Each structure stands twice: as structure tokens, then as C-alpha cells.
# Entry
Amino acid sequence: MSEKIYLHSIPSTSDYLREHRDRYEDFSFVYTFDQTSGHGRLGRTWLSEPGANLMFSFLIKKKEILSYGPMCTLSAACSVARCIERLGIQGVSIKWPNDIYIGDKKAVGILLEGSLPDYMIIGIGINVNQRRFEGEYRIPPTSLANEAGKPIDLNAFRNEVFDAIERNFSAIPASFDADLEYFSHHDYLFGKRISVDDAGEYIASGVDKEFRLILSNESETRYNASGEIRILEDKHE
Ligand code: BTN
# Structure
């Protein structure tokens, strides 16, 4: 069993874990329901109403897992998405590589940081019980409570999520097959017309075994390990 550290209020669980990583063992979790200065990809802010949502980060030091790098995002996203579906919520999908959507709204953000090959920190923000979202959001947000139509037991859900992540990560790399299969049925981008880092126009065509996004157009097929995705228009029927 790994250590689970609850902090009542903290600027950022990921920053905290990075600063104190030498103190904590492999697979320690730090979590809070009140994160005051959360951050996301590309320096964006992660906003959360105090007490309503779950924010956590976990530390990976084991070399074997670190060697899979960004594939760990797939494990984390699938673990969380399955827990959301177990609440009876429909329309859950993963927007490659690391957001979880319900319908066309974002409920979960995942941020992978670290210094390979030494350590990796996976930070996850889940909108659980927040009902109203004020301020500027690039992608319309939602929460599990909004989608389920009732409040969610925050601690019970946190336990489920931590267990699911622990189970999935302890089975890496064997678990990747089931994760890729799950992803193929929950791929938000599949069939959509997109650009990556604002270059070109492609149809998102799933992922390969290394969780690289497959992009195709009339002249080429590309495999992208990273990049900022922009959706150009909705799915072709
Ligand atoms: C994104 O959507 O850009 C990723 C958001 C990641 C937010 C989580 S909340 C817990 C952890 N601490 C942070 O400061 N960020 C991550």
C-alpha cells in the first residue's frame, strides 16, 4: 500500500509533491479538496471551488514504469474514466491524451510532469460536486454531480479512484492492452477534423500501440506523441 497524504488546503498538489519528492516513496498520493493555485497544461490555471472537487497528484519513481513515459497518461485516464462510468454516468470519453469529457464538456484534467528518467508526477483534477462554473473556460466544464444529477460522496469516490489507479499501474505493461481497448471505445477525437499545434488538417483516426495519435489526410498518415489539438469541425456522419 502506498502512502496517501491529505492536505486541507494547498496551492498545488503537484508542486507540493515535486518539492518534497525525496521525502516520499514511489507511488505516494497527495490530495486535497481545496487547491488554491492549481495549474494545467501550457501554464493554464486549474480552477476549483473550495471543498467541492478532488485534486491529487501521485509520484512515480520506479524505473520500469518511468520507461513507459506518456503511456502512463493512458493508464491514469482510463482508470479515472472507468470510475466515472461506474457512477452510472453516460457519455464519458477521453480526449487524447489526457482530458476526460462527458458529452462535449470537460470534467477531468490530467497533467504529467517530471524529469525523466528520475521521477514523474501525475496530477489529476476531477470536478466532482461543483455545480456552477464562473469565469473563463476554454472548454465548457462540467462535474460528476451535474451529470449524475446528484451529489457524489467525495471520499468514497476518491478511494475508488486511488484503488483503480493502483491496480492499473501495478499491472503495467500488461494493463496497456485493456487500456488501449477501452480507449478505442471512448475516443473523443475519433473521426473528428483536427489540427495539431495549429498545423495542417487531419482526421483523428485512433491511436497506435504506443498511444500516439494517428492523423490522416489525403496525402499522409502521421503519428503524434504530443501536441496541442484543435478541433476544426464536428464528426463527419
Ligand atoms: C489540464 O487540463 O490542463 C490539466 C489540469 C491538471 C490539474 C491538476 S489538479 C491536481 C494537480 N495539481 C495541479 O496544480 N495541477 C494538477
Q: What stands out?
A: Residues 12-14, 35, 38-41, 44, 46, 55-57, 99, 109-111, 123-125 surround biotin (CB under 6 Å).
